[in-house]
Amino acid sequence: MLGSMTTARRRAATLLRLLTAGCTLLLAACANKVMVEGNFPAPVLDKLPVSIGVYYDPEFRSHEFFDAATTREETDWLVSTGEAQVQMYNQLLPGMFEKVVVLSDLPRRDRVDTVMEDGLDAVLVPHVSELQYSIPNHTKINVFEIWMRYRYELYAPDGELLADWTMTSYGKTPTAFLQSAEAAVNLAAVVALRDAGANFAMNFTSVPEVKQWMDALAAARDAANQAEDASAEPPGFEEDES
Amino acid sequence: MTLRLSLTVLALLGLQACVTSTVDEVLYQGPEANLGDATVVIMGRRHASDYETEPDFVECVGDHIQRADKSVTVMSELDFMNELYPWFEPRTAPLRPADVSRMMEVEAVQERLRRINTEYLVWIDGETVRTGGAGSMTCGIGPGGAGCFGFGTWGNDSNYEATIWDFTDQEEVGRMSTQASGQSYMPAVVVPIPIIAPVKGTACDGLGNQLLQFFSTEY
Lengths: 242, 219
Known about the structure:
The complex is a heterodimer of chains A (242) and B (219). Chain A is of the alpha/beta class. Chain A has eight helices and eight strands, in the order αββαββαβαβαββααα. In chain A, 45% of the residues lie in helices and 27% in strands. In chain A, helix 3 packs parallel to helix 6 (181-203). The longest helix of chain A is centred in the first third of the chain and has 29 residues, at 2-30. Chain A is globular, with a radius of gyration of 25 Å. The relative contact order of chain A is 0.13. By secondary structure, chain B is α/β, with parallel strands linked by helices. Chain B is built from six helices and six strands, in the order H-E-E-H-E-H-H-H-E-E-E-H. Chain B has helices at 2-13, 55-68, 77-83, 97-103, 107-116, 199-215, and strands spanning 19-27, 39-44, 73-75, 118-142, 145-166, 171-192. Chain B has a six-stranded mixed β-sheet. In chain B, strand 2, helix 2 (55-68) and strand 3 form a beta-alpha-beta unit. Chain B starts with a helix and ends with a helix. The A-B interface holds A 39, 41-46, 170, 172, 174-175, 177, 194-195, 197-199, 201-202 and B 46, 52, 54-56, 81-87, 89-92, 106-109, 112.
């Protein structure tokens, strides 16, 4: 009896999953699909003397937004930004920090093996916390705009949260002449991602908690260097000098 | 008869409406005698919330200079932005020459600027707007053919200012502006005949010529 109930529940779950996948496929089939693609330049910055790990959670990696048509004249839009934003951060972060490691798991207080092994100073976790857009359906004119709010978390190697802050980004296609609506939406998204990178790169050290952490890191390194120098000095050095 | 009609239509299509243009210039320092291998960058201002300098206008000015004097190397806006990412994005671009000196404190920026050898940066700020329209036009299609009847008119105003920064001395060396306005017409008797006022193109040529006088030894 119990076995047949479990089987029935499994079947129902499978059916639900198939139905969801079918609906998504159906929606996607009718929608204007844009897989955001762009070239992101490496930043021209003096690297911070920090080794950092970065963890992109599955939601971030596959981030997309879907805009459903409200009238018959309108079309649905499905814009996938996940891959492009991972590409952008993978290009940006190595230009900002001395060492960058892409992690496959989030650091946790009870499991620090991966993070510690790589000798990282901190782990950065970016999230898309909010997204607003204006596409031709809404504006009726050739203006394509995307506004995003990113939330960043910075963890210590032991999993302790060091900083948690947000930054916004904005992108707009200045013209839609001679290009398809899809290309214009893509361009707006690329501009927004570039802006996100620029905002992050220019303001990372201005975040109070980050600044505090970096100051503490520098002080700890200075103290370690001084201790190393002191231990390297030959015994009786001071007496010889005097 | 057909040939004459075709020629008339072509001649009408080639008509252009009049444009009034004014160019002003203020130079704090005399033009550079010879740019040598150095490059000039022309960029559009995009920090205002209500308008953006059109990339096609910036490109037009660059092309105008490059066409007129091949010895002047104009670097494209996007190439420069990519070379110096993230310093010239709309959010981060320097608004005053003094901001350039702050940017130059970064060693990597100094090195990159040395490599691309940019001597001058020209900021173009402005836009072309439609100033209003009037008239109406009706088009129809039937078994005997198709055609339009009516009249439309609209105006365009261009207003641009170019500010020249010297990267070496980190100061503003000149400022020039151009205003152009014109009225376009579209009469239609069976075939619509656009008589367009090339307002933006005139503003581009005006600003391009002024910049040429600054950068080129031939003008």
